[in-house]
Design brief:
The complex is a heterotrimer of chains A (424), B (271) and C (302). Chain B has one domain: Orthogonal Bundle (MetI-like fold), CATH 1.10.3720. Chain B is 78% helix and 0% strand. Chain B has 14 helices and no strands. In chain B, α3 packs across α14 and α4 crosses α11. The longest helix of chain B is centred in the last third of the chain and has 33 residues. Chain B is globular, with a radius of gyration of 23 Å. Chain C has a two-stranded antiparallel ribbon with strand order 1-2. In chain C, α5 packs parallel to α11 and α12 runs antiparallel to α13. At the B-C interface, α1, α4, α5, α6 and α7 of B face α1, α3, α4, α5 and α6 of C.
Chain lengths: 424, 271, 302
């Protein structure tokens, strides 16, 4: 009944206004798995690789990957989930780890649990935890955002420091080196965007805390890690060792163009850095600087995302099988995506593969993947909660003020006040 | 001419010249940018480079240019025709056949202009889902067809439509729809031209709604394609500039061929 | 005098068939969503888990610093940008209306040109032009107008300046066309007469031009008011950063009400009820301002 109405209404509309023939709605072919993700050089390319591996054994399945920018994927997903229109959703979607619980909790029943199928014991525990709700695990853990300090050896050496000096840094020492780099080379140490809370998150998680406590309640005031993160950023701004960046693209351009000496971020940036072939041999990788907070380590995480299967998908079984076959079992796949794309997966077994043991000429022959795998195991687990975006925005409002004389305590107070209204 | 008038004159030319230059500068920047590499563009290089062919090739490789261009053209042309048809008929109807009930509806219609689109997106999306129109170009077009603004524009223009013409046609025994089609439409050609320019530009440049309602690569419009190129992790500004030009040419073209009628049509609407 | 019943029926049949298609489409694609959002504005909750909240959302408005910031920014853009743009457009239109002016067709075309450019394109262009080492700062430095590059996108003040510059660039020519069209309708002999009477040009402008253009000025003011209060695309795309925090400009300096609605709907924990409430703030503002503008225009009629 309902579908007949729909057809009647649809054809009436079409005939009345435009002629239905022009707009035949694309009928989904049987066994087409539609995937939404962002970044053509990373997630899209990797999913293509996974799809190629899977369809080799299952020729009846085709994979269609639709590429949007990350905010666009999130917006379309939210629109599709909110409207309850199943055709509006893909079969598989990539979700950044910070947002996982938000989707799982606010659209219950929209995602297919994978816990019956996938053996989760092989994955980094922090990834599994963030996709678990009420005892069910919903996603397929994908890339890790394990962080590192990428730096230009040539600039650092010109400033009178060596690769050994870059190990075991504190943030204070990092700033000191930054001043020396500027004095000797005229280059700034970092590209830094005051509307981005990324550095805040890196430092905070390296000290084992987040905006929320274990129960998901706000933990802004009295959060030593957050305070330390803001402290560091106030010092960076006051020391003037950064080049202001606006937005992601501009920020990336700062280090790819050789304008700055270092970048502290997730391992997924490796591909972008290596894309500048003329800079081969000039880069090094070190653990991130540490803060003086009990329990703080020189490892953290930024970003990273995972695949989710929509419960409304009509090829749900194939979609789950695709993820399970490739992402949970194919160790060789992880070697390929590491070599080709610089993607560090969260399947622990993959770390023993050959690709992880290969020296990288671009980084002067360092075995950088070994370092990243080592740091991956050291990342403190925190609760990303369901309001990370909201508090991020509150933090980003205060960041520019820190450089203009606002005290860290005042900033924390303002963040807490804004966050309190936003998280309801 | 006295010296002081001469100075005023020179001042006027200088001011208008400067403003015109600033108005076209981004266009020049786009054209120069197409020939340069990203590294030069972000450092503000404003001289022609030699990377044009490379950028153009990359653009046609990275975006399915003919397809997205065709999709945009289809949406813009059909959408504009439908909008002009439905909204001009309504604008004419509201002005010629007045009644208290229709005046009230007209008032509501004007009020809809005030509603921010962001809040309508979710319910609109639900409606499109119920109609089975998600991921169709018809879903992009439909919500824009009855535009409060265009209805208003045509009602204003209709005020200048000479009533003698209508009366004469009625005496000749023409039906109301014939009067509209055979007398009104030809008389108001330039009004239509002006509306065409504005509606076409809006339809061609539409971004937010197509972004939500279109789901697959084969339905994407050129603005969506450019926005995903520009938001890549490492965007190639040279390539984006090529895309920018390709996306701007149709609106430029429409404006230039319709320029004369456009200004004429504006005349009618603001009386 | 009421029309004869037969004529009235004739009127109604034709009237409804002419406006029918548009009204049906408006009912489906505007009225229904509007009613839905009105109902939503009394709901609270996460995603689709909603519960009735009464005036809870309105109370929340009064406690929400982000809403207040967005409201302040929106009003600021309105108060600063609309007068600058319309004055500029009117001024240019009056200059271009001079039949003795050479190249007026060319100048008019060039100044109108910005509004053919699509939003996505012009945001990319403005972004690339106003980078710290970009062409704009290079030029300003070369001309010695500034001694340090202006941090267009990383300083809250300059980010707002940039946004206002961008919107003014895009829409001045568009408004100018309306004025120009209206000016061409004015009988030139009135000008001639007053010129012969020795009325100075500025007085002619204020006593003749402005009053005669009042309907157009009102029209452009109302449409610009609506446009500025709903400002979304530019605020989101030019200065807004695409980083994870998704603030609109440094310290949310260009966060507008529409961007906030978008965030509440798509970026944050989806809160459709609260988003709907914020959008009705825009509706109320637009309605109030439109009323005031009509009122002011009417007063001067007498």
């Amino acid at each position: 009944m309902q579908s007949r109405d729909r057809i009647r209404l649809k054809s009436a509309l079409g005939a009345a206004a435009f002629g239905a023939a022009l707009f035949a709605a694309g009928l989904a072919q049987a066994k087409t798995i539609t995937v939404w993700c962002w970044d053509p050089n990373f997630n899209v390319a990797i999913m293509k690789e996974a799809g190629a591996r899977y369809t080799k054994a299952h020729p009846d399945v085709t994979i269609e990957i639709v590429d949007f920018s990350k905010p666009d994927v999130e917006q379309k997903l939210q629109a599709g989930l909110a409207s309850g229109v199943a055709e509006a959703l893909p079969d598989i979607v990539l979700i950044e780890d910070y947002g996982a619980q938000k989707y799982l909790q606010s659209f219950p029943g929209s995602f297919a649990p994978l816990s019956g199928t996938v053996d989760y014991s092989g994955f980094a525990p922090y990834k599994v935890e963030l996709m678990t709700l009420d005892g069910e695990v919903y996603g397929m853990p994908f890339d890790s955002g394990v962080t590192g300090l990428f730096y230009r050896k040539d600039y650092i050496e010109a400033a009178g420091y060596t690769a050994a000096d870059m190990q075991n840094l504190t943030w204070d020492k990092f700033i000191e080196i930054g001043k020396a780099v500027e004095a000797k080379t005229g280059k700034k140490m970092l590209g830094y965007d005051t509307s981005d809370a990324g550095l805040t998150r890196i430092i905070m998680q390296s000290a084992g805390q987040w905006y929320f406590d274990k129960e998901g309640g706000l933990a802004i005031e009295g959060n030593a890690a957050l305070k330390a993160a803001l402290d560091v950023q106030k010092k960076i701004q006051e020391a003037g060792i950064y080049k202001p960046a606006t937005g992601w693209n501009d920020w990336v351009a700062k280090f790819t163009s050789g304008d700055v000496a270092a970048v502290v971020t997730g391992v997924w940036i490796t591909g972008t850095i290596k894309a500048q072939a003329e800079q081969s041999g000039k880069w090094g990788v070190a653990p991130i600087p540490t803060v003086d907070v009990p329990g703080a380590v020189a490892a953290s995480n930024l970003g990273g995302s995972s695949w989710y299967v929509l419960a409304s998908s009509d090829v749900k079984d194939e979609a789950i099988d695709l993820l399970d076959t490739v992402y949970a079992k194919d160790v060789d796949f992880y070697q390929t995506i590491l070599q080709d794309r610089g993607a560090v997966g969260s399947l622990l077994a993959a770390r023993t593969g050959a690709a992880y043991d290969t020296p990288d000429a671009f980084f002067g022959g360092e075995k950088i993947w070994q370092s990243f795998s080592k740091w991956l195991g050291e990342i403190p687990a925190v609760n990303y909660g369901i309001f990370t975006n909201e508090v991020d925005a509150a933090v980003a409002v205060q960041l520019p003020k820190l450089g203009k004389g606002e005290s860290v305590d005042a900033a924390i107070e303002a963040i807490a006040a804004q966050a309190k209204v936003q998280v309801q | 001419m006295s010296p002081s008038r001469l100075a005023t004159r020179a001042g006027i030319y200088a001011f208008l010249g400067l403003f015109a230059f600033l108005s076209v500068f981004p266009f020049l920047w786009m054209i120069v940018g197409m020939t340069n590499r990203t590294g030069d563009i972000i450092l503000g290089r404003f001289t022609l480079g030699d990377a044009f062919l490379e950028n153009a090739r990359n653009f046609f490789e990275q975006a399915d240019a003919p397809l997205v261009f065709w999709n945009s053209a289809k949406i813009a042309i059909l959408g504009t025709i439908a909008t002009l048809a439905v909204s001009s008929i309504a604008g004419y109807g509201f002005e010629i056949f007045r009644s208290p009930a229709r005046e009230r509806i007209y008032g509501v219609l004007l009020l809809t202009i005030m509603i921010p689109f962001a809040v309508l997106m979710i319910p609109l999306f639900v409606i499109m889902g119920k109609l089975g129109l998600i991921n169709t170009h018809i879903a992009v077009i439909l919500p824009t067809v009855a535009s409060g603004f265009v209805v208003f524009y045509f009602r204003q223009a209709t005020k200048a439509f000479p009533s003698e013409l209508r009366d004469a046609a009625r005496v000749d025994g023409l039906k109301e729809w014939q009067i509209f089609l055979y007398i009104y439409v030809p008389t108001m050609r330039s009004t239509y031209a002006a509306a065409f320019v504005i509606v076409f530009m809006t339809a061609w440049n539409n971004y937010l709604w197509p972004l939500i309602v279109l789901q697959t690569n084969d339905k994407k419009t050129i603005t969506l394609a450019i926005s995903s190129l520009a938001s890549a992790y490492y965007p190639d500004y040279g390539v984006v500039m090529v895309g920018a030009l390709v996306a701007t040419l149709p609106t430029l073209f429409v404006f230039f061929i319709m320029q004369r009628q456009f200004v004429q049509g504006m005349l009618g609407s603001v009386k | 005098m009421s029309p004869r019943p037969g004529l009235r029926r004739y009127y109604d049949i034709n009237g409804w068939s002419f406006v029918g298609p548009a009204v049906a489409l408006i009912l489906l694609f505007m009225a229904y969503p509007i009613v839905w959002s009105l109902w939503m504005s009394f709901q609270q909750g996460r995603g689709m888990r909603l519960s009735f909240a009464g005036f809870g959302n309105i109370i929340r408005l009064t406690q929400d610093p982000v809403f207040q910031l967005a409201l302040g920014n929106t009003v600021l853009f309105f108060v600063v940008q609309v007068p600058i743009m319309l004055t500029l457009a009117l001024f240019i239109a009056v200059l271009l209306d001079d039949p003795h002016l050479k190249f007026r067709g060319l100048l008019r075309t060039l100044i109108f040109l910005p509004c053919v450019m699509s939003l996505v394109v012009y945001s990319v262009l403005f972004k690339s032009m106003f980078l710290l080492d970009g062409i704009v700062n290079q030029t300003l430095l070369a001309l010695a107008i500034v001694s340090e590059p202006i941090p267009w996108m990383s300083d809250p003040f300059w980010a707002r300046v940039l946004l206002i510059t961008a919107i003014t660039w895009r829409w001045t020519g568009y408004n100018m066309i309306f004025y120009l069209a209206a000016l061409q309708n004015i009988d030139k002999s009135i000008y001639e007469a007053s010129r012969i009477d020795g009325v100075p040009s500025y007085a002619r402008f204020f006593r003749l031009t402005v009053p005669m253009l009042k309907p157009v000025i009102l029209f452009t003011t109302v449409t610009s008011t609506i446009g500025t209060l709903q400002l979304f695309d530019e605020a989101r795309n030019i200065v807004a950063s695409d980083t994870s925090a998704g603030t609109a400009g440094p310290g949310d300096s260009v966060l507008t009400l529409s961007v906030y609605i978008y965030n509440l709907t798509f970026r944050f924990m989806p809160n459709f009820g609260y988003a709907a409430t914020v959008s009705y703030v825009i509706v109320v503002l637009v309605a109030l301002l439109a009323f005031v503008q009509f009122y002011v225009a009417r007063e001067r009629d007498r």
